[in-house]
Structure formats: C-alpha cells, structure tokens
Amino acid sequence: MAPRAQRLRPAAAFVLLPLFFLSVARPAFSGRYSPTWASLDSRPLPGWFDEAKVGIFVHWGVFAVPAWGSEWFWWHWRGEHKIDFDLFVRSRFPPGTSYADFAPQFTARDFQPHAWARLFQEAGARYVVLTAKHHEGFTNWGSPVSWNWNSMDTGPHRDLVGELGAALTERNIHYGLYHSMYEWFNPLYLADKKAGFKTQYFVLEKTLPELYDLVSRYKPDIIWSDGDWEAPDTYWNSTSFLAWLYNESPVKDTVVVNDRWGINCSCRHGGFYNCADKYKPGTLPTHKWEMCSSIDRRSWGYRSDMQMDELMDASSIIKELVSTVSYGGNYLLNIGPTKEGVIAPIFQERLLALGKWLNINGEAIYESKPWKVQTENVTTKIWYTSKAATVYAIFFIWPQDNVLNLSSPDFTAGKQVTMLGFPESLKWQWTPGKGLQVRLPSTVPSILPLQNAWTLKLVGVE
User: In terms of domain of life, where is this protein from (predicted)?
Assistant: First the structure.
C-alpha cells in the first residue's frame, strides 16, 4: 500500500489490492450456522427489530454535490441520459469536470451528528440506516481499500459513519449501515462481470474487506445490503460472510440483515425481507419484512430542484406507516441531506410531524403485532394492530355523525374503548352480526390533537 500522501486521485482510485486482503475475505468458519441458506435462514430474527417498527433511512454521498436527477447521477451521466446530464454539468461546473471532481465539494461542513440524532429521536425512530457506501463506491468512512475515494481522504475529511453512530448510541437508537455490494464503474467489478462472474477479484479485494471492516469497526445493528442483483450469491460469497456474521462477529447475537445478497435472494433469503423498494405486499406475509420509502418520491438522495408536489405529506407518511405495521412490517423512511450535511427544513418538518403523531399513537405501533384482521372498510378505512387482548383501530377519516362502525372486533359487556390522546372512555354498542359502534368524542375533530389519524384502543377483545 502506498503512503497516504502518494495515493491516487479519486478518478484512478480503483486498483488491485495487496494479496493479504484475501485472507481477510476468507475467515475461518466455526459455530452454529453453516454457510448454507437452509442453515442461515433458520436463525431467529433478534426481537428488537420487530419491536422497533420505525426507522430513518439516510442516503448521503458524493451524489449530493450535483444534487440533480437522483442518487444515480453518475450512472445516468455515463448512460442513456448522457446528453441531458452533460448539459447540466456544463451549466453548473467548470469545463472538463468529472464525477471524481465532485468529491472535494462533498464537504459535510454543517454536519452535526448529535443534532441529527436528536431529530431522528424526535421523529420517533427506533433505528437509523446510513449509506456507508452507495453504488458510486465512495465510502463515508476511511475504508482501507478505497484509496482517496472516501470521506477521510477527501471531501469532509471526517469519519461520517463513526460520528453518526456515536451520536445515535448516546440516544439508544439502533444503528444500521447500508452497503452496496457492487460499484458501477470499478474496473475490478467490470472485469468480473465481463468474465461472467467466474472471477472474484472485486469481491475478495473490495466488497468483503469493506463488509468485515464495517462490522468489526462500528458493530452495526443492521447490515442493509444492496447492489447485488447482477450476480449470484455464490459470486458475492454471501453465505460465508453471513455465517461469520452470525457465528463469530462482535454483533453475532444482535445484528439483523435484509435479503439482498444475490440474484433471486430477495423475498427468499435473509433476516428480514425488503423484496423491492417501496414494497407493499397487500396481504399479511409469513416472514418479517420492511417497507422502505422516501419523502422525496423521485429520489433517495438530495435534489436541489425538488418541488412540493413531489414530496410525501405527513398524512401520506402516516398512512404508509400504519398499513405497513398492520401487515407486520417495519417502516424505513428516507431523507437525503445536502452536500454540507444539512437536512432540508421540509424533511425536518415531515419527520417531526411523524414524531408528534407517534408521541400520542405510538402505543399502537411499537412492539405491536398484526391482528387476525389487518384492515376493513365499513364506513371508513380501518387498520388494526394488537397487543395480546388489546386491539388498536386506526382511522384517517372522521365520520360525520361521530359514530365509527367496526365490523371485525367481537365485544362483550365489561370491555373498554378509549381513544389514544383523549382522557375519557368512549360509549359503545356491540351487536352480533353488525359489529361495534363507537361514539367518538363530540369535540370538533379539527381541535383534537393530530388530525392525520386517530386510534381507538379496544381492551378485552375476544
């Protein structure tokens, strides 16, 4: 390895690594789980993840410098949208600008990890997932196998992964790391791809050393894998890595992983299932899953030209959260910070609105389980969650006559109905064959707290 002062410029940073990294990529195996999907999939998911329900996704990288199109800026610039992206770059940056030239401008100058952690806590998040590395290959920590294409050697000159992790730990928020298995234009990956993935230069000298480094150095609670879809899991050595993760790593008893570990792994293998971006199953899955969504509907990374009608409003966010949890999923809501490390005020407003709603209604979300019925639509759409003999009914439209009809709960005398955030018990009547009619508070809904949705708590449901 060359001394730091002699390392290559980012544009030429993809080089073969010393062979000693091959030993890092192939740890000795021992333990309960063998490197087969049958064995790995038998591992129980650590309970904290299902209980957490709400997470914040953070897409942050060099793509925040052009801040246009999406986080796939480099890919589109070199692909089918080259003309449009060339015009954009020529209009904003000096002649001859390359993608590598954006890295020094990714300053993170205003990044305040403790302020971020406070915001995420106020948003009601129980876990946060940060992009340690996106498909562009730039790492938000000092990766020893990403010379001059990382946040320590250029741009911020800071360990962004480590700083945010420390701030989240102080607030007891679980920390997850997103990691792209592939890199669009890394010559090692392109060579393996050209060989039909019969060689593994990129995996053994880049992907796996970075994964082992992230886990050993930062001890994350989640490894959120991505960028796997062009090659099989055997190319990525996914099962060997996961066997080490579950048996030998410093987080072997607490870590959770998703399902993006190679072609045909999504919705089939892994700890929890993502299946696809913004996945909505429509029925109750049999396996723990997560729905990832973005406040900016058009991008995961920050865009300076985003418009209000392209953003999710608070009501839409809460509806996605509620439906996801009713179907047994976790909700991972994404924001993209600026190149300076600022979370745009409109994103902050949306996160705080979610937190205000959860502050009152979180009892129906955190640690909840799907009920026997997930949703119904009698007089208005109702979503259900449960905890033992307590059922929560969440609705988004206040009935004009102040009476909410629920057809699914079976109710008998001596049971109690309340509204979260409202101090008094509510009057109700249950009729066999017709269901439960609940008299809502006569207070005008507009002056009740949090107009986006309300939650009835039904105690003693049969």
Answer: Eukaryota
Query: Looking at domain 375-459, which CATH architecture does it have?
Result: Sandwich (2.60)
pLDDT in tens, 359-404: 999 999 999 999 999 999 877 899 999 998 899 999 999 988 899 9
Q: What is the CA radius of gyration of the chain?
A: 24
Looking at domain 13-364, does it have CATH number 3.20.20.80?
Answer: yes
CATH 3.20.20.80 segments of the chain: 13-364
Give CA–CA dist 20/372, Å, rounded. 54
Average pLDDT of every residue of the chain: 91
pTM, two decimal places: 0.92
The CATH 2.60.40.1180 domain(s) of the chain lie at 375-459
Judged by average pLDDT, the poorest of 2-6, 82-86, 251-255, 276-280 is 2-6
pLDDT at 14 over 80: no
Q: Sorting pLDDT into bands at 50, 70 and 90, what band is 317?
A: very high
